[in-house]
Amino acid sequence: MEEQTRTKTRRLYMLQEDVYTPVVGEEKRYWFKKAIDHLKLEVSINRYLEANGILVRRGRARCAIHGGSNPEAFIILDSGRKFFCHSCQAKGDIIDLACALESHENTWTAVVSLAQNFGVELPSPTKSEGWTSWQKKKAVIRDSALEALARSYQRRYFRVFGGALLEGIGDQLEREEEGRKLFKDLEKTARIAATNRMARNG
Ligand SMILES: [Zn+2]
Predict the structure, then answer these.
(1) pLDDT in tens, 67-106
(2) Cβ atoms of 131 and 27 closer than 8 Å
(3) What kind of fold does domain 2-117 have according to CATH?
(4) Contacts (Cβ under 8 Å, ≥6 apart) of 188
(5) For FRET with 61, which of 26, 78, 104, 184 sits at 20 to 30 Å CA-CA?
(6) How far is the CA of 76 from the centre of ligand 1 (A)?
């Protein structure tokens, strides 16, 4: 039974390692950030200190980072989201605190450790559609940005080329008709230019 639990925990750990190691890929970074935001909400600094046997009184405690005994040195701010030590000047959030006290070399191991020690279920691609909907939202934003950029190129090209091409046409109706055609013809070029520009800007 114990062996089984251990195996399960290990598998969970490996799964989390895979998802939360922010090595490469936008998706991993996305989940990593989500996990950190979630932990900050779930595990307050007060809760963390008390779980580690450090007494918190009126938002103050002794600083376990520099190992001091002054019970007022370590100040908890922002409803338990931030800390600051008057003695050693250490400051940060719950992740920074866990990194300092548990000697994590990487942020992600601190994230996994906090999640396991405090029973926090971290958001992950299998548990929600967050990633997908975020991608969709981003695609919509990208599309409308591309649309606006393409339109502005189209108008600029029309201003640049339109005058010279259309001024020779004496008949006003014909000129307007040619103008509309030219504007339409410039759409494709403008779209290509806008796409290239967006690709350059990432
Ligand atoms: Zn300190």
Answers:
(1) 999 999 999 999 999 999 999 999 999 999 999 998 887 7
(2) yes
(3) DNA Primase; Chain A (3.90.580)
(4) none
(5) 104
(6) 12
